[in-house]
Design a protein that fits this description.
By secondary structure, the protein is α/β, with parallel strands linked by helices. The chain has two helices and three strands, in the order βαβαβ. It has a single domain, classed as 3-Layer(aba) Sandwich (Rossmann fold). 41% of the residues lie in helices and 23% in strands. It has a three-stranded parallel sheet, covered by helices on one side. The longest helix has 21 residues, at 18-38.
């Protein structure tokens, strides 16, 4: 029985504006998916919040490339920046 090779993907882009965050996410995914395909991976695991755009883009890219996709989504606790 064949086992699935998997790659772990983290969704932190580190950018501030929505447009630059989307561009950084797309660039990051392009790089990570290229690496995953080069290594023969057939499943991608992404971790993020319930409304994670990174997770959505990862799932879409997996579907387009014919890769399996496992999303580990959690309800994130709101930040309290008023301290």
């Amino acid at each position: 029985m064949a086992t699935a090779q998997e790659t772990f993907v983290s969704g932190r882009s580190g950018t501030t504006s929505a447009r630059s965050a989307a561009a950084a996410t797309n660039f990051k995914l392009e790089f990570l998916f290229g690496q995953a395909l080069a290594e023969g991976c057939d499943t991608v695991i992404a971790v993020g919040g319930l409304q994670s755009n990174f997770a959505r883009l990862t799932a879409a890219a997996c579907a387009k490339l014919g890769l399996g996709c496992e999303l580990v989504l959690s309800q994130m606790v709101p930040r309290d920046d008023h301290s």
